[in-house]
TrEMBL record:
<dbReference type="GO" id="GO:0016042">
    <property type="term" value="P:lipid catabolic process"/>
</dbReference>
<feature type="domain" description="PNPLA">
    <location>
        <begin position="14"/>
        <end position="219"/>
    </location>
</feature>
<dbReference type="InterPro" id="IPR050301">
    <property type="entry name" value="NTE"/>
</dbReference>
<protein>
    <recommendedName>
        <fullName>PNPLA domain-containing protein</fullName>
    </recommendedName>
</protein>
<feature type="short sequence motif" description="DGA/G">
    <location>
        <begin position="206"/>
        <end position="208"/>
    </location>
</feature>
<keyword id="KW-0378">Hydrolase</keyword>
<dbReference type="GO" id="GO:0016787">
    <property type="term" value="F:hydrolase activity"/>
</dbReference>
<dbReference type="InterPro" id="IPR016035">
    <property type="entry name" value="Acyl_Trfase/lysoPLipase"/>
</dbReference>
<feature type="active site" description="Nucleophile">
    <location>
        <position position="47"/>
    </location>
</feature>
<keyword id="KW-0442">Lipid degradation</keyword>
<feature type="short sequence motif" description="GXSXG">
    <location>
        <begin position="45"/>
        <end position="49"/>
    </location>
</feature>
<feature type="active site" description="Proton acceptor">
    <location>
        <position position="206"/>
    </location>
</feature>
<feature type="short sequence motif" description="GXGXXG">
    <location>
        <begin position="18"/>
        <end position="23"/>
    </location>
</feature>
<dbReference type="InterPro" id="IPR002641">
    <property type="entry name" value="PNPLA_dom"/>
</dbReference>
<keyword id="KW-0443">Lipid metabolism</keyword>
<dbReference type="Pfam" id="PF01734">
    <property type="entry name" value="Patatin"/>
</dbReference>
């Protein structure tokens, strides 16, 4: 624990997934965690998770719930009482004035590489957030992940890289830079709706196309003394276990999206031993490495950084309603926010601060 202002808070790290309007659940989760005394020391995000992460790190005056509220108030469509809820849930397909606008240059359609412009979100980010604060790692270490169109790999743009961070692993590069609204937009440039975002002469698409759970990005922001102790909360927007088969095309599309962006991280580790077995192997390896050639190997250093996985706690949403990822209606956003806030409190009550690892799917 440490003091933030005059209040004693519990430090945490956050990993925020992409998922369009489902990001309102993350908004609720983070608000709930902060209300319960947790304060982010490190945060990474992808797509809408990058927008939420930026709203946290760039919160004016350091008021995270207020910053998230302002951002979501800006991108939530106003209520239209005379229209059925199911119609309002789909209104964002026509545009979202503070997020994106549909293209109208139909005479140029044959050369389009996107259906919309994200210029409104660039303006929203610039107006809503304190980018001086966001770029200060002493305030919060912050990173957003995007997919490079040139390498096919993931690039994390961040305001910091930790000691012994892994800058270039081939499939993932960590770039410390001065972050702007463009870096946040790059993380959420999901085709074909949104255009690629160009940064320093290179084009980037949505980071979720490579990995929708940017744990590697977060690991490069952790200091050595945090690896064994700092709680890491992952908000899982696409739970896929034990669901019935889809019965119509909208449900088919919703399930396909969930399968594409579900959290696959756990499946990479442990084999039949699952994540718990992988962590036990790391502990055994660490115990025999002292004074051996293992200590000088970059791959061993990265394995030791993966010890942080024992601190992961997953807060999962319920499966998204059909088409829910584009429901920016007032009622849809409010329901997801309240569900996220309640889920955070329920998780803390169940876990009592102990890790809650999700097994491989």
């Amino acid at each position: 624990m440490y003091f933030h202002g005059a209040v004693m808070t519990k430090p945490m790290a956050l990993i925020l997934q992409g998922g369009g309007a489902l990001g309102a659940f993350e908004y609720g989760v983070v608000t709930g965690l902060v209300e319960e005394g947790w304060h982010p020391r490190v945060v990474t995000g992808v797509s809408i998770g990058a927008i939420n992460a930026a709203s946290i790190a760039g919160a004016k005056g350091g008021d995270i719930p207020a910053s998230l509220h302002r951002m979501w108030d800006a991108i939530t469509l106003p209520a239209m009482p005379l229209l059925p809820a199911v119609v309002q849930a789909n209104m964002s397909l026509l545009g979202n004035p503070k997020f994106w606008q549909s293209r109208t240059d139909y005479w140029n359609m044959l050369s389009w590489n996107s259906l919309c412009s994200t210029a409104p979100m660039h303006r929203t980010l610039a107006a809503q957030l304190d980018f001086e604060q966001l770029n200060d790692p002493l305030h919060i270490r912050f990173g957003v992940a995007a997919t490079s169109l040139h390498s096919g790999g993931q690039v994390t743009f961040s305001n910091y890289t930790a000691k012994e961070a892994h800058i270039d692993t081939g499939h993932h590069k960590a770039v410390r830079t001065r972050l702007t609204p463009a870096h946040v937009l790059a993380s959420g440039s999901l085709p074909p709706g949104f255009p690629a975002t160009r940064i320093d002469g290179k084009d980037y698409w949505d980071g979720g196309l490579f990995s929708n759970t940017p744990i590697d990005s977060l690991l490069n922001l952790l200091e050595p003394d945090e690896i064994d102790t700092l709680p890491i909360f992952v908000v899982d927007l696409f739970p896929t276990d034990d669901q019935p088969s889809p019965t119509n095309l909208l449900e088919v599309q919703t399930r396909a999206t969930a399968l594409q962006y579900q959290n696959r991280f756990w499946a990479q580790y442990g084999g039949s031993g699952r994540l718990e077995g992988f962590l036990a192997m790391l502990a055994a390896l660490e115990s025999v490495a002292d004074g051996t050639e293992l200590e000088g190997m970059p791959s061993f250093a990265w394995l030791m950084r993966l010890r942080a996985l024992k601190n992961v706690q997953v807060i999962a949403s319920t499966p998204a309603a059909a088409g829910g990822d584009h429901d920016f209606s007032s009622g849809g956003v409010r329901n997801l926010y309240e569900a996220g806030r309640a889920a955070a409190r329920q998780h803390l009550a169940r876990s009592s601060g102990r890790p809650a690892l999700r097994a491989a799917a």
